[in-house]
Amino acid sequence: MTRINLLIRLVSPYWRSKEGIKGWGLLLVTFLLTSLATYSSVYFAEWNATFYNALESRNYDRIIHEVYRFIYLLSAMAVIGANRTYFLVWLKLHWREWMTRTYTKQWLKDNRFYHVNRDSNIDNIDQRISADISIFTNETTTLFFSFLDAVMTVGSFVIVLWNLSGTLDFELHGYSFSIEGYLVYGAIIYAIFGFLGARVVGKHFKFLNWQGEKVEADYRRHVMTITEHTEAIAFAKAGSTEQKRLQHFFAAIYSNAKETMKVDRRFSLFTLFYGQGMFLPPLFLTLPKFLSGAIDLGGYMQIRIAFSQVVGSISWFSDSYDLLMSWFATMDRIGQVHKSITDDNNQNLKLSTNLNAMIIKELNLFTPKGQHLLSVPNWKMERGERCHISAPSGSGKTSLIKALMGLWPYASGSIEVSDNLLVISQRDYIPAIKLRDAITYPHSVEIEDDLLISALNMVNLSNLSEHLDTIEEWQQLLSGGERQRLKLAKCFILKPSWLILDEAFSAIDEHTAKAITNIMFSTLPNSGFLCIAHNEWMKDLFSKPLEFKGRI
């Protein structure tokens, strides 16, 4: 029941959404084409009987007539099959697009991505969203329509096979037996044997599929990490060390693949015998009637097709066992993503908006494990004031900044802060976009070139003024100090009411940092400044202290 509930939680939002109306339309068209495909299969079985009877009677005119019928039938089946595939792929794509957009929106909403990464309660969530959603929508629709096709095929061909079976009469130990529709019972028994065999042989598929997705994602993640930190790794001459780490990650891929190969070989061997042996039961079950002349060649060929269709449909579970195990594993992975991005981020900290002051009352911060980190009984800063936080490393200064931003749930007390707040953090990120957009990132605002150039001059980056419309990998192209100054340029453009500077000058020399700070004070005289300070000159400029009791 838990897995069914999970499936409903993952599937139902799309079909209940406004855009799901289009999905229902695609589903209906695909269903109708699947029904036509099933009817075509029944008609093809009937054609087989007629054609082989014509061959057996050596009737030239009938043979030519059946050849023309076959051409028409083949054309119709090709058109139906091609369009069914087209609309099915369209449905998969539409569902994937909606689900990916919905999950990424939920993941990025209210800094949920930060909390998920901080708590480390799920691995490789980025790759789960990008890859596993595609796999899930593809496998779900594939399994649904293959199951639907199997149900319709059974419903159609069981009647055909039952009518063709007639009655099997035999004696055993002096008792007479008569079994009507015996070929149907034979098909069911054969299919049950296939299902039980597939379950035994392929029982490890689910775990191996889950493990395979994880180790592949771990390897890709580490390759991406190396790409993002090429300069640091090169300076450290750590290429050989990273190669060993990559080899360690790939060893897990290799080991899992070898185990999967072993299971797959056994499963393939079983399915080969099972599939190729499917023609034997109808042969032996109908051989006495065929030899006695009760069944002609065309009848036998129709029985053979009907028997294989019934067995193939009833064997849906065994034939789809590998795919089902992969689907279960993917569903579990997506289920974890769904839970992590929809769970409430419980916290006892009360956050409210105050446009004119920053107020802290009875604030207590804790580590994720519940250990007390720091306390701020009562503190207030008015607009226009310049305050600093000065404390030893590890005492919780950055955690306090995170609490002010609502990024630290392990807290109690209350904080009042303006929504017109800009944080310049030591952890920088500049995307590969036009420089004019990188300066104001993530704010999408139209700024005149003169204002942008003026802001660049204020932070001593006039050399970049000619590249406002250039797209580069700024994160790699600029030095640490240049990246910090580029972020500080944003202050002169957006003119926030409140500024929090978290080690914002750590990569800038003292002379330049003082100059930029004084320009900020003169340009933003009514803004409130809160700065994490390690230098005496910063304490002099940001004169009001924010004191707290924290661990050392």
Describe the structure.
The chain has 552 residues and is an alpha/beta fold. It has 2 domains: 2-342, Up-down Bundle (ABC transporter transmembrane region fold), CATH 1.20.1560; 348-550, Rossmann fold. It has helices at 2-16, 20-57, 60-108, 112-119, 125-165, 182-201, 205-228, 230-235, 239-276, 280-292, 297-314, 316-319, 321-342, 397-404, 435-440, 449-458, 474-477, 480-494, 510-523, 536-541; strands at residues 167-172, 175-180, 348-353, 357-366, 372-382, 386-389, 411-417, 421-425, 498-502, 528-532, 544-545, 549-550. The strands form 3 sheets. A 5-stranded mixed β-sheet has the order 3-7-4-5-12, with helices on one face. Strands 8-9-10-6-11 form a 5-stranded parallel β-sheet, with helices on both faces. α5 runs antiparallel to α13 and α10 packs antiparallel against α11 (297-314). The two termini are 50 Å apart. The mean pLDDT is 84.
Short overview:
With 552 residues, the chain is an alpha/beta fold. The protein is built from 20 helices and 12 strands.
Biggest sheet layout: 5 strands, mixed
Q: For the terminal residues, how far apart are their CA atoms? A: 50 Å
Q: Please indicate the percent range of residues in DSSP E strands (runs of 2 or more).
A: 5-15%
Q: Decide which structural class fits the backbone.
A: alpha/beta
CATH level-3 fold name of the largest domain: ABC transporter transmembrane region fold
Q: What's the CATH architecture name of the largest domain?
A: Up-down Bundle
